[in-house]
Amino acid sequence: MELEQLFKHIESFFQNNTILTNDEKHFIESKAKLSRVKKKAIIHEASKRCKNDYYIVSGALRIFFIDKEGKEQTVYIGVEDNWAGDLSGYFEKTGSKFFIQAIEDSVILSLSYDDIESLSSEFNHLAVYGRKRIIESHGQIVSRLVALLSESATERFDDFMNTSAHLVNRIPNYILASLLGMSPEYFSKRLTKWKDKS
Are 100 and 54 in contact, with CB atoms under 8 Å apart? Predict the structure, then answer.
């Protein structure tokens, strides 16, 4: 069941109703590892090379780092039907700057980056899917960077609520505030006003 969800996710990236072949599915099935992780569990630690990419079947993960003042800074939140990993650390063959943590009890499928490279070299569909994922991820990073550099905290909050308000009931406020580059106090204040207007 979990693998079928992943197959549908991959196929959804193609606009021409592409269906994965049995060989492609069997290869993924032979490599993917299913794990159930508890809320707050760290599934990858900073300073270690990130060797896996994690597909979220259910639950939520975040990627964060600890700044020089000892504060956690969240850079990504992924919920079901998304991925979490540190591709740059893998390809640069260096220790990752990031932790990956479960925000909720989660079910994940992990694929090693080595296996992903093998999949991509052997199966064209999966190579195309990998490129599309990287392009999409790059676009999200650039958009977030532009927002942090050019928008006010109020604008960032409003944009977030327009696109991701459903996360407010799932993700702790301090994590959402960190993701948006604002203090938890300011986020809570804006959230109260938003709820009063709703």
Answer: yes
User: Taking the CB of residue 3, how many other CB atoms lie within 10 A of it?
Assistant: 15
| Cα–Cα distance for residue pair 57/90, rounded to 1 Å | 23
**Is the pLDDT score of 187 beyond 90?**
yes
CA 3 – CA 34 distance, rounded (Å)? 9
**What is the tens place of the pLDDT at every residue in 121-177?**
887 777 777 777 777 877 777 888 888 889 999 999 999 999 999 999 999 999 999
For residue 68, what is the enclosing H or E element? Answer: none
Q: For residues 133 and 113, what is the distance between their CA atoms, to the nearest angstrom?
A: 14
Q: Tell me how far apart the alpha carbons of residues 178 and 159 are, in angstroms, rounded to a whole number.
A: 15
Q: By CB neighbour count within 10 A (0-12 exposed, 13-18 middle, 19+ buried), where does 102 fall?
A: buried
CA distances from 164 to 4, 30, 52, 169 (A): 26, 34, 26, 11
